[in-house]
Amino acid sequence: MSEVYAARRARLRERCAAGGSEAALVTGGANVRYLTGGAPPGAALLLVPGHDVLVCAGDPFADVTGAGRPADDLPVLVLPSPEGDPAVAAAERAVETGVRSLAVEEHHLTVSRHRAVVSVAARTRLVDLGPAVEQQRVVKDDEEISALRIAAEIADQALGELLESILVGRTERHLALELERRLIDHGADGAAFATSVGSGPHSGRCGHVPTDRRVEEGDFLSVCLGADYRGYRSEIARTFVIGASPADWQIELYEQVFAAQRAGREALVPGAAYRDVDRAARTVLEAAGHGERVGPRIGHGVGLENDEDPRLAPSAMGKLDACVPVTVDPGVHLPGRGGVRIDDTLVVRPEADGGPELLTITTKELLAL
Length: 369
Known about the structure:
Layout: H1 2-18, E1 23-26, H2 29-36, E2 44-48, E3 51-57, E4 76-79, H3 86-97, E5 101-104, H4 111-120, E6 125-128, H5 132-137, H6 142-163, H7 172-185, E7 190-191, E8 196-199, E9 220-225, E10 227-229, E11 232-233, E12 236-241, H8 248-266, H9 274-287, E13 299-301, E14 308-312, E15 325-328, E16 331-334, E17 338-341, E18 344-347, E19 357-358
Parallel strand pairs: 1-5, 3-4, 5-6
Antiparallel strand pairs: 1-2, 2-3, 7-10, 8-9, 9-12, 10-11, 13-14, 15-18, 16-17, 18-19
Helix pairs in contact: 3-4, 6-7, 8-9
């Protein structure tokens, strides 16, 4: 895999050169990992002509193996003190090599850290690298999609096992903790994000923090979880009815959200505008009278971060490419009653290849558990 990361760094170096920068300092955690294969928190990556170096503080790899380590061919500079700042040390290294211009990720530097970099590179022209690495990360290669596919399988397994257990009487918090344990049991490095379980009037809320409310007969139960596998993060949400057959209002609301989610999935084709995917799903819910209850976006990219580019939102600029993994996750919450969330992780594929590839395959049928 070393050549994969070297090729990624070469692409970034070419982009910097085209923009007039001789070197680049990368400090965003996910960006550093994308370009190196693995790095501890706070590490900085310096790209200078003919030489790259990963700068870390302390003893960063004492307990790290496998996917958490950088590529074997990448030089690593370890600062003698854990209090050292890798970004500042990397900037000093750039100055020592004689570069006259250095691109930095201003959006990943605090004000104080940026000032420290400026102070050690006073005679070097600093320019903003901007979201160059984030943009490079949007289209995933086969290895990345394979990791996402496994992460999705793990989440499906954990959710499937939960659905086979007794749910009535258990708290939202207990169910969330059990799901996260099952993710690890099936090979995940951890949860991709804080697992959300909402029951009854809490169901359908985006990002609901589980409480001690106990699941009751007739509740809607909405679950949103994801697995982190080798740094790549899946996402899935499903909504079920507990115990008795669903009420008419539950069937109606579920069918409306499901139709919106299906419309969003079907809009995932290479060349489709981000905003058009959002519009496809949002229009369905607006027609059903839920326009004010729809969130600010219908989906987003996934990868080394759970929430990354592209954003599928009304004001988003850009168009989809093939091999871009995204979520489609509409939801509606009715205050005091509950609601529905349906979320899948998919990979954009051309029609010739069968259309969007669905990675999360747990049934979307409205089940009474």
